[in-house]
Amino acid sequence: MPKVLVADDVPSILYLFKEFFKLKGFEVDTADNGFEVSKKLSKNKYHLVVLDIKMGGKHGLEVLQNLIERGYKFPVIICTAYEHLKEDVDIIAKGKLDVEFVTKPPDLELLWDKVVRLLEKNAIREEVGKDN
Amino acid sequence: MQLEKKWGKITESENLNELLKGILDLSQEVLQSEAATLFLVDHNTDELVFKIVNGPASSELQGKRIKMGEGIAGRTAREGKAFVVNRPKSAGYADKFDKQTGFNTESLLAAPLIIDGETIGVIEVINSRGGDYNDRSKEIIQQLAAQVSSELKMTLLSERLSQSEEFLNSIINSLPGGIIILDEKGIVKKSNPTVVEILHKRDVEGKKVEEILPYSDILENIKDIKDRGSFEAIIRENGKENHFNFELSRAKEISSSGIENEYLIIQINDITDRAELNRLKYLQEINANFVFGLSHRLRTPLTPILGLSSILKDQKSLQKNFKEMVEVIYNSSLEMKDMVEKLLDIAKIGADKAIEVNEKVDLNSVLNEIISDFNYVPFKLNTANKELFISGNYKWLIKSLKQLFTIGLKEKRKNLQVELKEKSKYIYLNFKGFKSLIDDFSALENAPILQFDNPLTGNSDIKYLDIPLIRLVFSQHNVKITVKEKDVLLSLKFRKANG
After folding, report:
1. Cα–Cα distance between B53 and B59 in angstroms, integer?
2. Do B137 and B124 meet the contact criterion of CB atoms below 8 Å apart?
3. Helix H or strand E segment including A79
4. Is the pTM of this model over 0.80?
5. What is the pLDDT confidence band of residue A78, given thresholds at 50, 70 and 90?
6. Fewest Cβ atoms nearer than 10 Å: which of B185, B245, B322, B450?
7. What is the spatial order of strands in the sheet that B387-392 belongs to?
8. Residue B72's closest CA among B87, B85, B59?
9. What average pLDDT does chain B have?
10. Residue A64: how many CB atoms within 10 A of its CB?
11. Are residues B315 and B422 in the same domain?
12. Taking the domain A3-131, which CATH number applies?
């Protein structure tokens, strides 16, 4: 079962993603601040991370930067109300991590398309990695 | 008319030329002479000038010059003493002017005009009608010369004073804004006509400052400024608010008796229009920021409403009537989402209101707009090359960046390139990419340039400067500038030229 970590400081949004990913067959883990994200990432393995940007503790962009620095390769979906942050995300992650940017409130169908695309891409890469 | 009366009448004159002519006429009359000349010393050329000439050769001699020491007048000036010379030709004096004019000098009496130990001219009478000049004549001309010198001193001083007064008035009248000059007692010594226009007060000179500016806050501010400074104040009159800028400075005057007087110079400028414009801009910015912030905040609670209703509406197990309810919630939240997006668009329009991005913009007007905010920092604008140099610190940089990015923001997001050129202690930010905004792109290859202190030299620590609109991240080899303007983000990364 694929495992997703969802990070957002708004409980109702965490609840939404938790229910959504559960329905899609995911094992869901949640975090309501940036520090908790870092803590959970160091303990568990995830196939996908859904990250808000403006959170308490560590800023989402800082968390993203840490993921890259630590060499994590799993895909990330950034879900934020602030669409102007997309280019900041691109600058940080381009060529280093597979990241999709989604603005709140997301269209869940489109979100799911992005999830599938990211996971497929990641799976192919893992396969290629095994062959080599 | 008696001599004393005549003298009194002459000295009443305030005009220097009239005074000199009157004295010369009187000397000629008293000493019963055919002709008389008043010379003034030109210290620049070391010559004596025939200033006033009475007698038959008057027109030929007027304005002519002789060297100091030349002839009897020249000797009188050089040696600073009176001379009596009867029959000068036989005494060996040159008759240059007699030959030129046909006049025949038989006898001559001359005395120096001395002010504060310095010879400033010579008074000379020629050809005594009552026999030769004698010691008595010499005594008389010396007395007359002393009187002349004293009168001259007074007149010159008064003329100088009146000239400096006129000069001061012309300066005060030509200065922008209202000017009030106060003495140490706070009494208006001088003012210009603009004061009347600005403060609607007439005949201010001689009045106390409290009468001219009867506003306690302004008077307090004036009192608090010890040397020089400025403040802004609002004056309410007939229900209208007028904004004024007060610039204060001090000037000292040392009188001839050595007494030092200090004056306070107040320059008042009406800045009502500017203040109103700034207020409107500020309100517009607040309004845009509020709408912008609100639209983003609404997105957060909308996320679970829309998301959860979208999940529920597709649940096959849901009863029909509940499914209908969920669909109403879902559709309503979609409408709300649409409204939030529109709200955001309105905020963007508000923020970019002054800018029509697809319109061609004249660079000079853009630069001048920027400069208008920089009129109190050193700057150099070369309109021929369309270059702007601004010297300043980070504060200026941020301000100018904000201005630059506000203009045609969307276009710049696509096209703007920024280069970093490091030269000595300055960094030059070279903005390119105004192509779609400005007619003559070729002229913009190197403009505009913002020049500011180099954060890259001498410090290897990373410096963060994070403000709501622009984030600057400085490291030893890179500068990253992130400009956040509403929903547009522009990130620029610079590499140190040799890094």
Report:
1. 8
2. no
3. strand A76-80
4. no
5. very high
6. B185
7. B379-382, B387-392, B449-453, B426-432, B417-423
8. B85
9. 69
10. 25
11. no
12. 3.40.50.2300
Inside any domain, residue B356: no
Across the interface, do A88 and B301 touch by the CB < 8 Å criterion?
no
Cβ–Cβ gap B491/A104 under 8 Å: no
Shortest CB distance from B489 goes to which of A16, A85, A108? A85
- Listing DSSP states for B406-429 in one string gives HTTHHHHHHH-EEEEEEETTEEEE
Residue of chain A minimizing CA distance to B482: A88
Name the domain count of chain B: 4
Q: Where are the domains of chain A?
A: 3-131
Instruction: Confirm or reject contact between B300 and chain A (CB < 8 A).
Output: yes
Domain boundary among B126, B160, B194: B160
The reported pLDDT for the residue numbered B240 is: 80
Instruction: Tell the residue number behind the tokens 């001309």, with chain if given.
Output: B141
Assess contact for A97 and A76: CB atoms under 8 A.
Answer: yes
**What CATH number has the domain bearing residue B283?**
1.10.287
Give the domain CATH number at B187.
3.30.450.20
Q: Return the pLDDT at B373.
A: 45
Stretch B176-205: mean pLDDT, rounded? Answer: 86
Give yes or no: residues B180 and B241 share one domain: yes
The answer on pLDDT for B436 being more than 60 is no
Which residues constitute the domain of residue B298?
275-351
Q: Which of A60-69, B33-42, B272-281 has the highest mean pLDDT?
A: B33-42
Q: Which of B270, B304, B319 is the last residue of a domain?
A: B270
B314 reaches A (C-beta below 8 A) = no
Q: Which of A84, A103, A104 sits opposite B484 (nearest CB)?
A: A84
Asked whether B97 and B63 are in contact (CB, 8 A), the reply is no
> How far is A25 from chain B, CA to nearest CA, in Å?
14
pLDDT at B263: 87
CA of B489, closest CA in chain A: separation in Å?
5
